[in-house]
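New to this. Comment on this protein:
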Amino acid sequence: MPRYALHLPGLQSVNWINVLVVFVLTSFATMFALANLTPVQLHFLGVSSAAIPVYIPVFIAFILGFSGGVLALTFSRRKHKLEIAWLRQEHERLQREVDNLRNIPLQDDV
């Protein structure tokens, strides 16, 4: 177990919450897709698509946005992990300095 890990009782219940959230979101996505089967034709920068159901471009836009968010989060997380590593090294260096200062014998100049 990592040094900074916390043991929380009842942590297994979080997995059921994740399953429930995924199930609810999947249900809503399925209902949305079934309610929006009307074919549409997309036009962008002079390029036209074939007639496709409305839910397909909506899902594609959602997936692209989600992927962009995950990518941004990955870069942010990496930056923070590097900062945490630097702060741990700094903490260890300062701790050694404090320990060295504690071990210096006290002298009376009387």
